[in-house]
Design a protein that fits this description.
This protein is mainly α. Helix content is about 70%, strand content about 0%. The strands form two sheets. It has a two-stranded antiparallel ribbon. A two-stranded antiparallel sheet has the order 3-4. Helix 12 packs antiparallel against helix 13 and helix 42 runs parallel beside helix 44. The longest helix has 20 residues.
Amino acid sequence: MKKLRALAQTLSFSQFETLISRKDYPQALKSSLTLSSPLLTDQTYSLFIKSGHFLDPYVSTALISHFSKLDNNNNNNNNNNLSRSLSFFLDTQNPDIITYNAIISGFARANDSRTVLGLFNELRHVGLVPDVFTLSSLIKGCVSLRENWVSQGVCLKLGFGSKSFVISGLIDNYSKNGDLGSAERCFKECLDLDNVVCTVMVNGYVWNEEFEKGKQVFVEMRGLGLELNAFSLTGVVGALFDVREGEQIHGFGVKMGFLRGSSMHFSNAVMSMYARCGREVDAIKVFDEIAEPDVVSWTERIGTASDGHEAVELFRIVLSLGLDVNGYTLINVLSMIGGVKFLNAGKQIQALCHKTGYFQVVSVGNALVSMYGKCGKICDACRVFYNMIIRDSVSWNSLISACSENGFVNQALDVFYQMRELSLQPTIHTLASILEAVSNSNNTKQVIQIHSLVVKCGFMFDVSMICCLITAYGRCNSMDESKRVFAEIDKVNLVHLNTMITTFVRAGYYTDALALYQTIWSLHRKVDSRTFSIILKACSAITDMQLGRAVHSLVLKTGFDQDSFVESSVIDIYCKCGSIGQAEKAFRSSSMNSLAAWNAMMMGYAHHGCYQEVFDLFNKMSQFGIEPDEITYLGVLSSCCHGGLVKEARHYLDSMFELHGIIPHLEHYACMIDLLGRVGLLEDAKKTIDHMPIQPDVHIWQILLSACNIHGHVELGRVAARKLLEIHPENESAYILLSNIYASVGMWNAVGRLRKEMKEKNLRKEPGSSWIQVGRKSHTFFVNDTSHPQSKEIYAELIRLYKQVIVSLEPEQDGAFLWINGP
């Protein structure tokens, strides 16, 4: 093909030289257009004018049409071509309506509405009568609603107001400007309805997210017997969120021969539909059938990537092919990457955004802010945000979310206050992000304030907003408020129910969660995989094996057993209830590519002290091509902790980032410090805390303090207690543990001072308790508790068991006890 093009250009240039030698400049001027050299055309035009010729409408129209249609991605080149077209127009003697149509069409294509309207007024002043092509270009060049109203009035005045070519343009303009009512009126008033008008109306509904109405017009279009083409199918595919409907339209496209690259727009739309419906594999199949994918195809393909690594690799392929990426391509790849391991790739993409001029596109800037937030680089996210010339509500939401997700609560609130000071109206997403931030800081008062703002903004009708409020109150331990919000819902749906059950479970209200679930089931309300996953977690928390098995049976009966989260929850409950065999059986029947199931089984083995089984599973993961995550390593480190394997734990902690790019969290360091404390390496535990790249929290210092209590290390105990009280001054366990350390070495004065200080601060240790479940009822006991109605029988049985244990023990010579076979 390239050789044919080169040959054709050679022949054209030979003809052009012949015309120049004959001084046939009018024909030479037209011939120069086939050589795709604007400079050559300019030089020929100079000879044309110099030889005394004048530009007539016929030659002028050819020149204007050629340069105004040139497709240039470079805006400067495009402006140059339009300027060149306008120069030819101004040089034309007595331009006719065709010449005007050509120049108006060019500026309409460039969305230069001011010039389009000016040229239209000019042709009316010189006495020319607009035709159908003039009006079509006039409407296409309108940008604002006001311009569209004016154009519609002109069309009505000239008698073209109900023609399909006019109506289609008006519908398109009104739809893109959000005036769907005017678009619908134009559609109803159209006298000669055709497939173009119907397709534009379908697209208008899709553009304004009125998907059901879009599908209805498509059905009416088929009922009228109008011809279906690639454009009409492309339009309706955008309205589909049910994969079965999408497959039907896909089948139409296959039958009519619109796939495999014959209609790139339709192929790309089908890809997008499958990705939207969660059928990434089918989307990839459609992509693989396209012979020469364009940048839109590659953009959709990046969006279906399984992870950040694949997305970055696909983006590199796009660049290597020399395709010009657009804003959507950049947004898709930025949305797929997150974490420190992608930080360099993210910075390189930002540099490309600067180079290509997309950095100042608002949506691209928003994607960069979100990307840096996911990488934990808040300073970089702020820098991008404050360098953006234009910001929308998504920009503010992205920065607030970035701060919130990384624990920078005060910074998130500061950004929110800045937004309010600028009189910017918060959106539902803004308030959801700020609710997450304040709930993470356990501040009920601030949640109440945001709740008031939600009511004031009129967002209490939104399902997601109500769920955010329920969750936020629950995280702040204000369960009464969560229940109140839930009770005030007019029409409770499955999303509300799942949120309330989840909040109960997270707050430790397992009985309430199970009661709500039983109410749902008794009312024959619909449940989903998430409902089962949450309820199984509640059963795990109270180790209710009987109820867990019943829920597992319902899972199998309703067909949710293949859901990855349900699979992991089933494995988890059997592990928590001590039935490791049942857990292994559930694991073997689960999907082998489910990372959640692998993690649940590894955590179960770790809690049962089966560290060798944990290591075996971890090694098998690579055979199945499964990449470990933070929870996987938490299971491995927990097993090392239970097994006292210091060397192995250090190896796995170091390999997290080195092999998989996973940054250890506080939970991973907590396992390591707990292990070192258990084996008596307290100095090493302290060094680990000192060298942590993140600030230790209450839990870390409490682990070290507990280890100091076990091993009687006074100095380190004092340090750990001081650090613990700096973070949490009201922590009674710090006083109790430090008091025990002092008592173990006979420092009774220090013990007395600590107890006096506790008394002055009115601090009391929450009494420990144990519980047992008998006959689906939980029984809780405290130390020296006699409140149970069967306390006499219980203590009698405990005394009997105690005597049995004593009889079963025989002292050795060194005074220790040795277990022997008892009755």
